[in-house]
Amino acid sequence: MKMTRLLLLSFFCLLSLGLATDEIVADITCQAETGLQSEFGIPHELEGEFFPGIPKINYEDWLRFSVAFWHTFRGTGADPFGAPTKSWPWEDGTNSLAMALRRMKANFEFLKKLGVERWCFHDRDIAPDGITLAESNANLDVVVALAKQLQEGTEIRPLWGTAQLFMHPRYMHGAATSPDMHVYAYAASQVKKAMEVTNELGGENFVFWGGREGYQTLLNTDLKKELDHMARFLQAAVNWKKSIGFNGTLLIEPKPQEPTKHQYDWDAATTMGFLQRYGLADEFKLNIECNHATLSGHSCHHELEMARIYGMLGNIDANTGDAQTGWDTDQFLTDISEATLIMLTVIKNGGLAPGGFNFDAKLRRESVDVEDLFIAHISGMDTLARGLRNAAQLLQDGTLTELVQKRYESFDSKLGASIKEGSLSFEELEKKAIEWGEPPLTSGKQEFAEMIFQSYL
């Protein structure tokens, strides 16, 4: 394992020599002179920069990695066809409060040894459900108190927290969209507490994933009523955030289905349309999960770009699925091509802060060694770092950017500018179409674009 971490460190050192874009590169300085002595007696050939144009990389800006508590410390390897396969040394087989404290200590040890300063959690991942809401809150307070103690003297903080509103039977019909107001009130209470402890721990974001916010059939569903209720729920969350002084970003995580047949925040476009419709677009951003993107019939790159161009990209759940499986397998991202596409969007977005890359990914059922937890996360970090390097070089080269600009260059004309401004009527455009005649066919150069992209992998 020491060798694995050493190899990763060596790679990051090499990465720092290869990363450069207009957004990242510092001002180029003059070459170091030789043969002269400085006032401190240091030869001038040891001053200045020997790698002008290559800046020191600030990973805080570009690679804000986070560990998902639920997969890493609550994942058992169980699936619908088989019993748990994981037997971690810190586990005692219970879901007691004492066990929750042991898991939290294991979490912080893992973060420190991995060199990652962020983690994400659901409230019921880190503390057990009690018989009553008051008991559940008390359990959560005990675990959060330990987390605060373990944070002392470190930079470790939650990237985001959230409330688990999908596992308990009370949420079988939904939480914010439940037809029962008692469930709605319970869910609101749970979000209230989860947001409070996220704020207490210094969390930077708070996520809403509506796994049960949808329907199995429209025959027994009042669609408008459920959407209205969900909007009121989210508005109340915004109000509570402001009342407690939580400065983090509120994020919604789109997913098309699973466990419901249809989930209301199906994809990025649907979610943004919902937020716009209910006047919430200025209060939320999106947490895009790559595996959810493919489940909705899109690529991760598509979903990220949709969120970015509307100023709504807030965080990325970095994982991937299996094209042969068809469900949310939550695998670690190891595809360099996909990582490069992701990083093209991240660079254009100016980074993700205060969001980041949460490894919402789990070991395969057959991976049962503690070492596998480290290997999987290191592989994920390595893949995204390589994607960042590739994307930066691709943008710096500019060939692909120029190809795209050339496709739309007719709109750079005076008449094109008028079209973009919306100052030309259909009648005026008709006159121009008659004057110009049949438009020429121009190549989209898709194969050339793909060749350029592949050459940087």
Molecular structure report:
By secondary structure, the protein is of the alpha/beta class. It is built from 17 helices and ten strands. It has helices at residues 2-18, 59-62, 69-74, 97-114, 123-126, 133-151, 181-200, 223-243, 268-277, 290-295, 300-309, 336-348, 370-397, 399-407, 414-421, 426-436, 446-454, and strands at 65-68, 118-122, 157-162, 205-208, 214-215, 249-252, 262-263, 284-289, 313-317, 357-359. Strands 1-2-3-4-6-8-9-10 form an eight-stranded parallel beta barrel, surrounded by four helices. Helix 12 links the parallel strand 9 (313-317) and strand 10 (357-359). The longest helix has 28 residues, at 370-397. The radius of gyration is 25 Å and the shape is globular.
Percent range of helical residues: 40-55%
Overall morphology? globular
**Treating each run of at least 4 consecutive H or I residues as one helix, how many helices?**
17
Uncertain spans, ≥5 residues at pLDDT below 50? 1-46
Q: What is the CA-atom radius of gyration, in angstroms? A: 25 Å
Order of helices and strands: HHEHHEHHEHEEHEEHEHHEHEHHHHH
> Structural class, from helix and strand content?
alpha/beta
Strand count, sense and barrel status of the largest sheet are:
8 strands, parallel, barrel
Total count of strands: 10
What fraction of the residues are assigned to beta strands by DSSP? 5-15%
User: What is the end-to-end distance?
Assistant: 27 Å
Task: Name the strands of the widest sheet in spatial order.
Answer: 1-2-3-4-6-8-9-10
Mean pLDDT: 89
